[in-house]
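Supplementary material to the annual report.
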Amino acid sequence: MSAPAIPDQQLRPMRADARRNHERILAAARELFAGEDPGVQIADVAARAGVGVGTVYRHFPDKEALMGELVRERFSIFNTQLRAALGDASQAPFAALSGALRANAEALADDAATRYAMMGGGERAYGYAAAELAEFLSLSRELVGRAHASGELRPDFSEQDVPMIMCGVCATMGKRDAGWEWDRHLDLLIDGMRALPGA
Amino acid sequence: MSAPAIPDQQLRPMRADARRNHERILAAARELFAGEDPGVQIADVAARAGVGVGTVYRHFPDKEALMGELVRERFSIFNTQLRAALGDASQAPFAALSGALRANAEALADDAATRYAMMGGGERAYGYAAAELAEFLSLSRELVGRAHASGELRPDFSEQDVPMIMCGVCATMGKRDAGWEWDRHLDLLIDGMRALPGA
DNA sequence: ACCTGAACACCGTTCAAGT
DNA sequence: ACCTGAACACCGTTCAAGT
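Predicted assembly:
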């Protein structure tokens, strides 16, 4: 067996300097991916992190893996939000679902680096987040099921529509001079999710 | 003055062989961009078109310009569709707007190459389509205005929301194993666009 | 006028040498 | 164990030579 793809997840703890470098590389990637320049290079990330390029490749097998780690961490935070919505008994089921969508969208709107990774990392970047994606769908399924049971959600809405909505809204965030607002985009979608009053 | 960015639009007509090469390059790009491989190279496009790489660069100043031309042609077709919707007196205004959205989305769903150009061409690719984008917004404004006048459209909907919706739906098309359907995405948005019955 | 493709420049990735 | 950065490979782009 070769080294794990993401040393962060390996069984034995990393040496102190390696752990520090790992965090510095991720922090540098977040700073640079969030910037204006769409052509961020691994050498830039290494320089910003204060390490050699080889060290970046020791921690992340390729550029997509570095982006994939940002995606993975973001879905982990999404899942925390979905669990909070499931655990909050004070909200009606539809409000819990739509509120979780909005909270996740707001977090993503503030995180240009992860949007960069999500939009530009290719399919393989999502592969690194497979476990978190499966958990995301599972939690979505529970929230959607409750909202169906309460009759507030349109009958044909499925848990797959939760990531679909996040993907669509994410694509419209942070476009310069586009002239639109992502939160109104989400308003349209959430209103479209409601069960028809007469049905 | 240097040569125009897109020879297709220059004042004097191209020589017959140049025109044929121009079309062959675009056809090759469409075929390759629509394929599975996300890393299409200019050398691949040139080989498929049966020309040298220098010929590709003679017709398109860089890779983004080649993608931009696909975006430009697509918005030109979008505009034809919007004009048809405006000219069809048999439809109610909301149906004309939502029908045009759906027709354009269906066309885009069948055109993976242009989706590739739209998602991966960067902001500059849209610069090549500036005139068509302005026309798209102008036509959208008229369709949206009519639907507001008839009271069927939610009051805060603006013409900027038309490209926003197209962008969001486009981002969810053609994802392998994503488990969702773009046409249901559009259903949600169109239902969210309706004015509230009680308002 | 336009075409060609070898040459150049740039950037992702590797790996031999170092600590 | 981990780090470094020169070297390599690949691909976008240019340009001198050709038709």
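Chain B touches chain A through 34 residues (CB under 8 Å).
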